[in-house]
Amino acid sequence: QVQVVESGGGLVQPGGSLKLSCAASGSIFNVYGMGWYRQSPGKQRDLVAIITGSGNTNYAESVKGRCTISRDNAKNTAYLQMNSLKPEDTAVYYCNVKSYSPPYDVWGQGTQVTVSS
Q1: Are 85 and 12 a contacting pair, CB within 8 Å?
Q2: What is the CA radius of gyration of the chain?
Q3: Of 40, 59, 61, 64, which is closest to residue 49 (Cα–Cα)?
Q4: Helix-strand-coil percent breakdown of the chain, rounded to 5?
């Protein structure tokens, strides 16, 4: 069983920064990518950023230039550095670990990010 644990969320002022961590453990192999998604109340869960094992990245347009996803493959850990945070960034942030062969798609419990004065 693959397990995912997020950490690093909290309350931050507009314009501030946070760094989220996502640690995966268990029967982890052939990971295609690790990603960060976010969901606010009443809204769908949307992509923030993903990173593949080879280092390719993809960002939501709303966070380009403000967020950076990184990885440590040896530790099966992904990070999301978030800068210049805006109130609209407020959401629960979830980490996802995906593999296609063998197939698995595992989510963490989420970590709350609140951007408010």
Answers
A1: yes
A2: 14
A3: 59
A4: 5, 55, 40
Please report which helix (H) or strand (E) contains residue 113, including its range.
strand 111-115
Q: What is the pLDDT of residues 78-95, one digit of tens each?
A: 999 999 999 999 999 999
Tracing tokens 């052939």 back to the chain, one arrives at 30
Q: Hey, which residues does 52 pair with through a beta bridge?
A: 33
What average pLDDT does range 36-60 have in this prediction? 95
Half-sphere exposure of 3 (CA within 13 A, CB side): 3
CB 30 within 8 A of CB 102: yes
> For a pLDDT cut of 70, what percent of the chain falls above it?
100
Q: How far apart are CA 90 and CA 34, in angstroms?
A: 21
Structure-token pair, residue 31? 């990971």
Cα–Cα distance, 1 to 114 (Å, whole number): 31
The token duo for 69 is 């996803």
CA distance 48 to 67: 9
Residue pair 75/47 in contact (Cβ under 8 Å)? The answer is no
